[in-house]
Amino acid sequence: MFTSDLRYAVAAVSDCGNTRPSNEDAFGSSAEHGVYVVCDGMGGAAAGEVASSMAVEEVMHLLSKRASTMPLEVAVEGAIRAANEAIHSRAEQNPQLEGMGTTLVGLVTEGRRVVVFNVGDSRCYRLRGDKLEQITVDHSLVEEQVRMGRITPEEALRSPLRNVITRALGTQASVEPDLFELEAEAGDIFLLCTDGLTGELPDALIESMLAAGLHLDDLCARLVSSANKAGGHDNITCLLVRALE
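The structure assignment produced for this chain is given below.
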C-alpha cells in the first residue's frame, strides 16, 4: 500500500556540449504536480529542437492537469500518445520538419508511488544508498543485440551503431512506451538524462558522484561538467529528483 509521506526536490542542467551547434535536448519539471520529463530531439535543421520541446510541453501539460480519479498508468500512456500524435502531425504538415522525433524519459510521483516511462535511449536511474540501478531499458539497436547475445555490453559501448534507436516519439503514427512502477524511499535520487551524459560517463562514475551527498544543483553541474571534460560530443541533460521525508 502506497502512502503519501514523501516530498520531492528537483534540479536540472542542460548543456550544448562541446561539438554540437545547438541544444536539441529539452526538459520540464513540476514538483508541485510530481511530473519530470527529459527529451533528446532528432531531425534536420531545427526539427529536433521542435520535437523535444513539443514532447515536453505536451506531456508536462497533460500530466500536470491529470484527474485524480484517472489511473496513473492511463494518464501517462494518454499523454505520451497525445505528444506522439502532435509531433507526427506537425511533421506531416511541414516538409522542413519531416522525420523529426525525440526520445522521452520521465517519471510521475504520487506520494511513495513512482511511475517511470521511456521511449528511446534517454534513461532513468535510481540511486538508493550508494547503489545505482538503471530503471529503463534502452530502445536501441545495440541493446537489442545485447539481449539476443550477439554482442557483449562492453562491445555495445564501442559499437558504431550505439546511437541507433529503435523507438522514438513522433516518427511513426503510434508508439509503444515502457512503464515501470516503483516505490520510493526517503533519500532515493532519480536521474533522468540523455545519452550525452551516459555516452561519456560510465555508470560506476555516475554512481560515485551521486553518492557524494552534494546538493542537487551541485550534482547536476558536476555531472554535466564531467561529461564535457570526457568529450562532450553531444548535448547533455541531467535532471535529478530526490525523495525527502
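Interim note for the steering committee: The longest helix spans residues 72-93. Residues 7-244 form a domain with the Phosphatase 2c; domain 1 fold (CATH 3.60.40.10).
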